[in-house]
Structure to design on (263 residues):
């Protein structure tokens, strides 16, 4: 485990500490939720800050790992700094709205709320552009990694950006539930609707391709070391198409108004 965080630090010390700070913030938000029983859409107001903090920690640590192989690319540190700014802005504004006892997303009830939501949207757009920048680095630069792993990283980045589009759809629709208003019964902790379609499922599937597909590519490159490059590439293709299929399925399921798991 220490070796993993050493690699993250080599990629970006800033993102390494951004992750640890968000783990600490998640603990703070758990404490807040224990003493604040305010609910929004049927869930404790501090549940979203907790989820976002943990998700951000995983995300920035992943990006730290991905930035490492880009070596001395001067743009690398600019990308890391931009990602850190976007994530800190997002978590700060979500926490502010939680402290105020009101929703952070799709909240345009007052000029202040609309402005906060707009800033969060801009930060997510910035982050998507930065991820695209990392993708270009893996396309343009010579990467000293196994070819199958590089292909898996590229695929994970593309699927991440596709998952981000589900977030854009939610902004356009001003909500994440299909077939009803946001809120109501949901899965434990995740709070995904168990009664109606929920775009957050596809959004999460797409975003976590950033970890799942490169990890699968690493497994293929190490466990199938004795196999031909063609066999390894075929195995990665199967994984990638399967993951894409899951992403499309969850998106279609949401638009059909069907929950991932019904209560």
């Amino acid at each position: 485990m220490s070796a993993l965080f050493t690699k993250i630090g080599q990629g970006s010390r800033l993102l390494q500490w951004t992750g640890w700070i968000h783990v600490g913030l998640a603990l703070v938000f758990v404490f807040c939720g224990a003493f604040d029983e305010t609910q929004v859409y049927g869930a404790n107001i501090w549940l979203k800050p907790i989820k976002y903090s943990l998700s951000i920690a995983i995300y920035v640590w992943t990006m730290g790992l991905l930035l490492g192989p880009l070596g001395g690319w001067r743009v690398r540190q600019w990308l890391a700094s931009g990602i850190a700014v976007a994530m800190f802005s997002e978590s700060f504004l979500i926490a502010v709205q939680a402290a105020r006892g009101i929703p952070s997303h799709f909240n345009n009830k007052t000029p202040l709320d609309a402005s906060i939501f707009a800033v969060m949207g801009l930060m997510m757009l910035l982050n998507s552009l930065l991820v695209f920048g990392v993708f270009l680095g893996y396309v343009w630069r010579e990467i000293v990694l196994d070819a199958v792993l590089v292909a898996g990283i590229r695929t994970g980045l593309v699927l991440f950006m596709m998952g981000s589009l589900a977030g854009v759809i939610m902004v356009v629709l001003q909500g994440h539930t299909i077939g009803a208003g946001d809120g109501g019964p949901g899965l434990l902790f995740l709070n995904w609707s168990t009664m109606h379609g929920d775009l957050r499922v596809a959004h999460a599937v797409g975003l976590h391709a950033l970890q799942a597909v490169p990890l699968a590519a690493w497994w293929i490159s190490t466990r199938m070391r004795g196999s031909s490059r063609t066999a390894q590439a075929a195995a990665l293709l199967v994984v990638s198409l399967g993951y894409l299929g899951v992403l499309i399925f969850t998106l279609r399921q949401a638009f059909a108004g069907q929950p991932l798991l019904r209560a």
